[in-house]
Every structure is written in C-alpha cells, then in structure tokens.
Amino acid sequence: MKRVHAWISGRVQGVFYRASTHSEAVRLGLKGWVRNLPDGRVELVAEGPGEAVDALIAWCRQGPPAARVDGIEAVEEPVTGEFQDFSVRY
Q: What is the CA angle 63-38-71, rounded to 5?
C-alpha cells in the first residue's frame, strides 16, 4: 500500500481536471480526495496499491485533454487508511 500527496500546477482548473482525476482514481481502485486550490493548482491525496498510485500520478502528468500540466510535486506519506472512497472536495 502507498499514499501520495500531490500538487499539480498549470492550466488545471476549469478543464474538468478534478472530475477526470476522480474518475481515474475510482477506475484504479484508489481512495482519497482531489480539490482545487485558491492559487490555481489542484491538490490530491491518494492511497491504495503502489502500482495504482503510481499510475494515477503518471496520468496526472497529462490530465484530461483540455489541461496543460506544468508540474507536479508529489510526496509519499505514511498510509493511514482513513478514506472510504475517492471524493472531490470543494
């Protein structure tokens, strides 16, 4: 099991980045959340099998078609098991 806390910068708000990330995380069987930040970045926390977490981060480097990802800062954290599902936070 693995947990990653990540911040994605670029044109990632107003382009369905959160919704697409949610769909991808659910498809991969991950738990956690994704949200927009006031500074224009997207933040996420994802927990699950290591390969699935890595696959989500790889997907986040491109995102949905309308997005332009300039960078990702991802930090591995201790797994907590606190999440029941993957949600979009507002």
A: 35
Residue position matching structure tokens 């959160």: 18
* Catalytic position from the list 3, 11, 27, 36: 36
pTM assigned to the model: 0.97
By CB atoms closer than 10 A (0-12, 13-18, 19+), residue 14 is exposed
The stretch 1-13 carries a mean pLDDT of 98
| Domain formed by 2-89, architecture | 2-Layer Sandwich (3.30)
Which DSSP letter does residue 65 get? T
Q: Is 36 one of the annotated active-site residues of the chain?
A: yes
Band of residue 70 on the pLDDT scale cut at 50, 70, 90: very high
Helix ranges, 1-90 (H)? 17-27, 50-60
**Is 41 known to be catalytic?**
no
